[in-house]
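Hi R.,

Here's the input for the NDP complex you asked about:
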Amino acid sequence: KLRNTNEPEFLQAVHEVAETVIPFIEDNHKYKDKMLLERMVEPERTLMFRVPWLDDKGKIQVNRGYRIEFNSAIGPYKGGLRFHPSVNISILKFLGFEQVFKNSLTTLPMGGGKGGSDFNPKGKSDNEVMKFCQAFMSELFRHIGENTDVPAGDIGVGGREIGFLFGQYKKLRNEFTGVLTGKGMSFGGSLIRPEATGYGTVYFAENMLKTQNKSIKGKIVLVSGSGNVAQYACEKATQLGAKVVTMSDSSGYIYDEDGIDAHKLAFIMELKNVKRGRIDEYLKKYPTAKFYKDEKPWTIKCDIAMPCATQNELNEENAKTLIKNGCFCVCEGANMPSTAEAIRVFQAAKILFSPGKASNAGGVSVSGLEMSQNSLRYNWTNDKVDTKLHEIMNDIHDVCVTYGKDEDGYVDYVKGANIAGFVKVADAMLGQGVV
Ligand code: NDP
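And here is the predicted structure with NDP in place:
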C-alpha cells in the first residue's frame, strides 16, 4: 500500500482480490509464505514514454504513452490499449492486474498487460488519429512482439486504431506477425472478435441464470455504454429474447421502453462507430424514447443490469436502487464498473453478481484465438470461433462455481474468479522459481 498511495483504482482492484485470495493462500500449504500475491501486485515492467505528433493545423501535440507488462508467468503479456484523457498509472495498473487473473481464467496461454495514453480521440480527424497512432507505435514497437507482448483494443481503441497501429508496427519491424489483436479481417483479424466481449458477457449471464432455472428470454435488461462491449451485449441479449431498454455514453443515457431492437441498434452502431455522434441523437430518430443528461441508467426497473461503459460507474446507492426495483442479476461487461460498496450490497442481497474479470473475458479469449489463427496462418469460421467462445465462457462460469460456492449454496463469483485465476498463475510462478 505504501508504494501505491496515489493509485486508488489499483488499490481497489488489489483489495478485492486480496480479500478472497489471502484466506485461500493461508489454507493451502503449497502457496503459503511464497510471497506470491506480493510478487503479483508488482508489474514485471512499467513503460512510460513521450508521444509527440502533429495535428491538422501543423501544431505539435504531446501525449503520454504507457505499457504495463504485468505478468508473463503463463504466456506473453496480453491486454488492451486505452486512449482516454483519464488514463493514468493507477487506472492502467488496475486494468493490468485484473487482466492477469482474467487471462488465466480463459484457459489460454496469455499473461497480463495493459497500456494506452491520455490522448483523447473525441473530436479528432481520422488523419489526426492516424498520426497519433503512428507516433505511439514509434516507441511501443521496440517493447512488443508476437511472443512478448500482444496489445489489443479497449476504450477509445477499436478497429480503426488497431489498423493504424499495426500498419506502423509492420513498417518499423518489416514483418507481418500477430503482434496486435482486433485487426481487420483482411489483415489477420478473427471473426467474432468485435462481438466477443459483449456476446461473452451475455453467455456468462445465461449460465448464471441457469443456476436458478431462469433464462434471459423475456427479461428487461439495462445496458450502460454504447461502445464495442455495450453494442454486442445488446445485440446478443436481444437475439436471445431479452428486451434491452437503456444505453448510454458520457453525456447521459437513453431509455426506450419498447426495447432497443436490431434496427434501433443498427442506428446506434452507425451513430457511434461511423458518425462518432452522441447518444441523445437517438431521439431524433426514435422520439418516443427519453434522454437523461449526465445520469446513469440504474434507476430504471429491470431484471438484469449489464454495466458496459467504464470503472466505478455503479455505486452503492445505485446498487440499492437496482435491488429495490427487482433486479436479480448484475453481469459486468466493463472492467470494475461496480464500486466495492456496490458489490457488497449485491452479495448481501444474494443476487447473481459476476465481476468483469470473469464475465467480460470473452474478448481476450477470442484475441487468444486470433493469435492461434495468426500462428497457423489460417482463419476459422464464424461458427467455430463462436462455439469456442461459448465453451470458454461456460468453462469460466463452471470454475467460478467450483471455487466460489459457499456452504449455503450461494455462488460468490468474485471469490471464484479470483481464486481460480490465482491458482494457474501461482502454479506457473512456483514452477519457474524466484523470477
Ligand atoms: P468503447 O470506447 O468502445 O466504449 C466505451 C463506452 O463507455 C462509450 O459509450 C463511452 O462513452 C462510455 N464511457 C467511457 N468512459 C466513460 C466515462 N468516464 N463515463 C461515462 N461513460 C464512459 O470501449 P469498450 O466498449 O471497448 O470498453 C468498455 C468497457 O469494457 C471498459 O471498461 C473496457 O475496459 C471493458 N472491456 C473491453 C473489452 C473489449 O474487447 N473492447 C474487453 C474487456 C473489457 P463516450 O463515447 O461518451 O466516452
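One thing worth noting: Residues 153-156, 158, 197, 225-230, 249-251, 308-310, 333-335, 360, 363 surround NDP (CB under 6 Å).

Cheers,
M.
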